[in-house]
Amino acid sequence: MNDRYDVVIAGAGPAGAQCARDLAARGYDVVVLETEAEDEFPRQSNKSTAGTFPSMMASFGIPDDVVMQYTDSVVLESPTDFYVKEQPGAVLEFADFKRFLVEDSRADGAAYLFDARVTGPIMDNGEIVGVRYNGDEEVYGEIVIDATGPAAPLAKELGVSDLKRENHAIGIEYEFEGIEVDRPGYADLHDAMMLRLDHQIAPGGYSWIFHTGEDTAKVGLCYIQNGYHSRYAKESFTIDDYLEHWLETDPRLASAEPIEGKQHRGSAHIQMPGQMHTDRFMAIGDTVPTVDPLWGEGINKCMQSGRMAAATADSCLKHGGLEPTADNLEVYDTLWHREVAPNMKNRLLMTKLLYLAEDDRYDRLMADLNRLDDDTLAKANKGDPVAIAKLLHVEDLPMLAEFGKRELRPDILS
């Protein structure tokens, strides 16, 4: 193991490992530092619902053997209605997927240091030149990348991270057996990924059931503990209480039994990114943050951010005389906003408006989606104003007025 590399990456999640894959494939010396021990990886960080789509699988060369279940449709639910869209997808076994990324990048020459907790940057003349880990161990690189998620030990010290506590989303998920996948009165969830908008289950957020084969599924919920959540929250209820309430009240889950060792908790920040780079440094994945604000899809977004950082590093390192200064790394921000999360601000506003709506408005949304063509939802997801207008009604004016007041008063809600 060397102590000098072209690129040093902190964090072996989807963003960090994919960045290492791309850089190693280009022939660069890259090392990834990961907090967890290799024989347990990724026990502590195995926290993603891991729903994704064929475009991600194809773009990043993900093999079939890390897929738990291929799905044929996406289902949106409200308290009393649902909408079904034919959309191929895949539910990954997240631990196998993360191990694949590590081994695939290793095959191209990437080095990994497991059981290596990054503690801070090594600075020289105001620039980061390396990483300190496990107290006094050191490793050096021409470019350093923080892919550690919200912990962000490097980005925070460099003043790059701007994660806000009030934008911190929490989630809980169990894998269950004994699910009634095709219950009369509900959508058939065979080979489906279902997202439910229902404040009784996930106030100011959403819940999900992702079918994983036979009578098994991933079942969970998430929300941000902010004004949209507190508007509908039950006093003293924790996220565990909401999941228990769903298990007790949804007949599809009446016989559900948790699968041993398949309980996950996770968190992410839902907000606009601030600064994402400085001299010799980039922040990627959930360090930025990168999770899609509307539906919570994170794997593809994180891997895209890793790929954009790798392309940016390559643009500097392949030219011997081009220093990786902040100016020369600026292309990373441009690529991020163009390729990873276009229309991020509009999608954040859509997310806040969606979570402000009452439960009966979710029922109306399902009716509208069933009435309109499938392209309406796809276009609205991308922030198309015409498509969004089709989903609004005169009766929404009071909600829109309240939404405007909230967005103009950050003391009410950031």
Number of domains: 3
Radius of gyration over all CA atoms, rounded:
22 Å
Classify the beta-strand content into a percent band: 25-35%
Percent in helix: 25-40%
Overall SS class = alpha/beta
Largest sheet: 8 strands, mixed
Could you tell me the CATH topology label of the largest domain.
FAD/NAD(P)-binding domain
**Under the CATH scheme, which architecture of the largest domain would be assigned?**
3-Layer(bba) Sandwich
How would you name the CATH homologous superfamily of the largest domain? FAD/NAD(P)-binding domain
GO molecular function: FAD binding
Pfam family, one: FAD_binding_3
InterPro entries: Dggglyphlred_Halo, FAD-bd, FAD/NAD-bd_sf, Geranylgeranyl_reductase
Protein name: NAD(P)/FAD-dependent oxidoreductase
Could you characterize what this model shows?
With about 425 residues, the protein is of the alpha/beta class. Helix 1 (about 15-25) runs parallel beside helix 3 (about 95-105) and helix 1 (about 15-25) packs parallel to helix 7 (about 300-315). It is built from 13 helices and 16 strands. The strands form two sheets. Strands 1, 2, 6, 7, 8, 9, 15 and 16 form an eight-stranded mixed beta sheet that branches. The protein has an eight-stranded mixed beta sheet with strand order 3-5-4-11-12-13-10-14. The chain folds into three domains: about 5-50 and about 95-165 and about 270-340, FAD/NAD(P)-binding domain, CATH 3.50.50; about 65-95 and about 165-270, D-Amino Acid Oxidase, Chain A, domain 2 (2-Layer Sandwich); about 345-410, no CATH class. Helices cover about 35% and strands about 25% of the residues. The mean pLDDT is about 90. It comes from Salinadaptatus halalkaliphilus. InterPro entries: Dggglyphlred_Halo, FAD-bd, FAD/NAD-bd_sf, Geranylgeranyl_reductase. This is NAD(P)/FAD-dependent oxidoreductase. GO terms for molecular function: FAD binding.
